[in-house]
Design goal:
Largest sheet: none
Helix content: 55-70%
Number of strands: 0
Order of helices and strands: HHH
Distance between the termini: 31 Å
Structural class: mainly alpha
Radius of gyration: 14 Å
């Protein structure tokens, strides 16, 4: 299995319900850590970056996603 196969399988996984939950958990943890380190001084920017990463990684319909339409990544 080469890198392209692994990448394709990871992208397919992130588009599933389970993959979306895993991605959301990781992104939420990263955002929480960033907020802790910065003392919540940049919470809005961190949340915006978290939401953009969510849209980029998977379906973009996680619990904190603002304004995503549908599940088609090309529609955003």
């Amino acid at each position: 299995m080469n890198f392209n196969d692994i990448s394709r399988k990871a992208q397919e996984f992130l588009k599933t319900e389970k993959g979306e939950k895993v991605a959301d958990k990781i992104l939420d943890g990263g955002a929480a850590a960033a907020n802790k380190v910065t003392g919540n001084k940049h919470a809005d920017k961190i949340q915006d970056a978290r939401d953009k990463a969510d849209k980029h990684l998977g379906r973009g319909d996680g619990p904190t996603d603002r304004g995503a339409q549908g599940t088609d990544p090309d529609a955003r």
